[in-house]
Amino acid sequence: MDLFHRRKRRKSLKTTLHQIVFFLPALILMIIFLLYPVLNTLWTSFTSEDHQFVFLDNYKKVLSSKDVFNQKGFTQGFPLGALPHNFLWILIHLPLTTFLGLVLAVLFKDLKYNYIFKSSIFLGMVTPMVIGGVILRFIYEKEVGIINAILELLGFQAFTWTAYPETALLSLIFGSVWLWTGFSMIIYSSGLGNIPKEYYEAAALDGATPFVIFFRITIPLLKQMTVVVITMTILWELKIFDLVYVATMGGPGGASNVMALQMYFYAFRQFNFQNASVIATLLMLLTLFVTIPLIKSSLGEER
Amino acid sequence: MKFITWIVVIFSAILFIGLPVYSQDSSLTVIGPWSGGEMDAFLPVLKAFEEETGIKVEFLTYRAEDLSTLLPAQFTAESTLGDLIFMQSWFIQDQAKKGHIMDISAVITEDDFIPGSLDGLKVDGKLYGAAYTGKVKPGFWFRKSFFEKNQLTVPNNWEDFQALLEKMKGIEGISAPIASGNGVGWPLSDITEHFIVAFGGTELFHNLINHSIHWNDAKVKEIFENRLAVLLKENYFGEPSEWTMVLEKWWNGDYGLFFMGSWITGMVDDPSDLSVFSLPGTQGLVFAPDYLFIPAYTQNPENAKKLLAFLVTQGQELQVQQGGHLATYLNVPIEFYPEVDRNVAQILEGKMALPDLDDTIGGEFQSKFWDQLKLLWVKPEQVDDVLDTLESVFEQ
């Protein structure tokens, strides 16, 4: 090997060494605080209380528990179990917040002083979810809640929405639309700002109606924003805890229970860390299922 | 020179940051569940200790439900949030077995306290906690003026009680005869415990705590179905609402009766207008002391012992004067009580003092019990499901 290549190799090794040294503190922290807990949780989910490997026994136990999946609920009404409840969150909350956020972003786009409206809607997003939960609890109260005040004005009978199994979960889902819509609105607003005005002008010259412009130009050009909104919203819906904990504690009778809350019950009420690890692992798998397409899509964009 | 300057600066910074951590601070931290008016009534007791000993005391509010999740992790790490902590008896006993709690057998004299009040705090004959003041859960509170205005009378039997509720239902402007406090869930459990004692007796109550009788046993089901659910189905109970909000509404006449502990006497504008009755035939009442303990990891064990000894003796004398509390320390003179609390103390006479059922069982049962009662309150026809679910907690 000639001197030039030897020097080049030595220099490259030196650079790699520098990179490793630079990266090492972060790597050590990640191993201690991220990788180790994840692997430990995964391992715990496959072991018994006395640390014996039991393979899928804990998973069978958790998934057949009434708290997580209540078969009877599908014929007799709530509770359906924490897992179906999380899916209901996604099914109802996701389209509502995504659509509302998009509509509001479009509506406010060319509005004068739109920052006032945007800020007031975004307030829900900056409210801590624990406070949001308390507010929701009072909003739905029979005696003092604003929802009931409106309903009574319209001639309906008031009742405490979070007190009944049929309405508890749905109340929280619909209530949290107010708390989360600000997120999608802001993301869509920034996306709208990046669409060149010429596209709209050209479409208008061609005689396209606002409806056509919205569906043929706005929505396709906001695809990446939609991916971000959907992914982040699903992640939030999967890990929802604080809001439910404060507003209903998963009740009544488990009718508004969700996976993260059930994990808390297993870990800190029953001190059953095996079952809690099962839920944590299931949530992690579901999260990966959602985030991997996002990462793939963003990597594709970089290329 | 520059290098040496840097070394000195870094060394001084470490010393500055590190010193307070390692310095021996003699002040104490007390953790308890009280906030608002209840905390205001407790702080003078701590102040009195500070004045007497010169030891500073800080008070932090933490709910028992939160402490039950926070403390085990702290104890495992051999550290503690506070030097003296108020907590439920099941937790003290459980943690004492694990070696996380200080033995205080030599700090207090057991004979000075209400017989049996310290039983739930012992492990292998050693005492690991003490009883501060307690609260009795005597029954249904009402305003004397409300009863007089609507010509209502205290019931002598079950039929009288039902008739009273029916009459109340007809009063104009009333939401429901009985207010249902809610929030975390314990107000409903207090009502249920009272029904169990009244119609099942004190033995059945103890058997449920020990789980020597099943929750879906016919005797228990009979009480839930024929007593509690009957009233719920007739809408004699209001919808469960946040209990302090309900307290205000009850006081303003939206409800006729409110089942609550004796602390209510310290929470209303005019305690002299208050009166209370138990369900006819009740032989026992839940008397729930506020238990406290010293974690094994306190940095000030001697001062913590001094404070504990003060609180459960002189401290109780000061506390009962604030209203809403009953002493577990037998040497507190009756003259120290406000009049309304003296009456409450009299209700206890001739009745068996019982432990709080869900506080004694604790753990998962407690949260399930609260949640299932919330369900029962709005779905009284689901008695069987509720009792089966409660039983399943023990089966697991």
Question: In summary, what is this structure?
Answer:
The complex is a heterodimer of chains A (303) and B (396). Helix content of chain A is 75%, strand content 0%.
Task: Outline the structure in words.
- The complex is a heterodimer of chains A (303) and B (396).
- Chain A has helices at residues 3-45, 57-63, 73-76, 82-109, 114-126, 129-139, 146-153, 165-193, 197-205, 210-221, 223-238, 242-247, 259-269, 273-302.
- Chain A is mainly alpha-helical and 303 residues long.
- The longest helix of chain A has 43 residues, at 3-45.
- Chain A is flat and about 90 Å long.
- The relative contact order of chain A is 0.12.
- Chain B is of the alpha/beta class and 396 residues long.
- Chain B is 49% helix and 15% strand.
- Chain B has 14 helices and 14 strands.
- In chain B, strands 1, 2, 3, 6, 13 and 14 form a six-stranded mixed sheet that branches. In chain B, strands 8-11-7-12 form a four-stranded mixed sheet.
- In chain B, helix 7 (186-210) runs antiparallel to helix 8 (218-233), helix 7 crosses helix 13 (363-378) and helix 13 packs antiparallel against helix 14 (383-395).
- In chain B, 45% of the residues are buried.
- The A-B interface holds A 66, 137-138, 141-144, 159-160, 163-165, 249-255, 265, 268-271 and B 68-69, 72, 175, 182, 184-185, 239-242, 245, 249, 254, 363-364, 367, 370-372, 374-375, 377-379, 382, 385-386, 389, 396.
- Chain A: Its main location: membrane.
- Chain A: It holds the Pfam family BPD_transp_1.
- Chain A: One of its GO terms (cellular component) is plasma membrane.
Mean pLDDT of chain B: 90
Unreliable stretches of chain B (pLDDT < 50, length at least 5) are: 19-23
What is the domain tally of chain A? 2
Give the end-to-end Cα distance of chain A, rounded to a whole number of Å: 35 Å
One letter per element, helices H and strands E, the order of chain A comes to HHHHHHHHHHHHHH
Biggest chain-to-chain interface with counts: A-B, 24 and 30 residues
Overall radius of gyration of chain A: 25 Å
- Structural class of chain B comes to alpha/beta
Please identify which CATH superfamily of the largest domain in chain A we are dealing with.
MetI-like
CATH H-level name of the largest domain in chain B... which superfamily? Periplasmic binding protein-like II
CATH class of the largest domain in chain A: Mainly Alpha
CATH architecture of the largest domain in chain A: Orthogonal Bundle
> Over the alpha carbons, how many angstroms does the gyration radius of chain B reach?
24 Å
The CATH topology of the largest domain in chain A corresponds to MetI-like fold
